[in-house]
Amino acid sequence: MVRVYDSMRSGRTVASIKDSWERLPHLLRIITWRTEDDLAGDLFPLEVVVVDGVPQQRGGGCGMMVLSFAEHLMLELPFILGCEYENMAKKRCEFANRLWNLKNDVE
């Protein structure tokens, strides 16, 4: 299953990802994630689900929204106010601080 987390959702969400969705099985064949037998005759083996409840951005925060989504997914946290547009300035500072600390820990 492919989950689409769209922070600028519209009625065109599924239509806008259709090209990528159609190419994905072929890419997976190339990298041998699945065998030819698994995909035989099936051009759409992956179900695409547009996830509901994703905080919506109103502009300018695409990168931070992606980072926040990834963080919440990896930590299995709910999408809460912390990753919505109103808090993007704070999130930018938090991520900058983390990157600075990681850089200094490596040296």
TrEMBL record:
Family statement: Belongs to the peptidase C48 family.
Coiled-coil ranges from the UniProt annotation: none
Keyword terms, alphabetized: Hydrolase, Protease
Keyword presence, Chloroplast: no
GO biological process per UniProt: proteolysis
InterPro entries associated with the record: Papain-like_cys_pep_sf, Peptidase_C48_C
This protein's name: Ubiquitin-like protease family profile domain-containing protein
Species, as recorded: Cuscuta europaea
Domain Ubiquitin-like protease family profile per the UniProt entry, residue ranges: 3-96
MF-aspect GO terms: cysteine-type peptidase activity
Pfam families named among the record's database cross-references: Peptidase_C48 (PF02902)
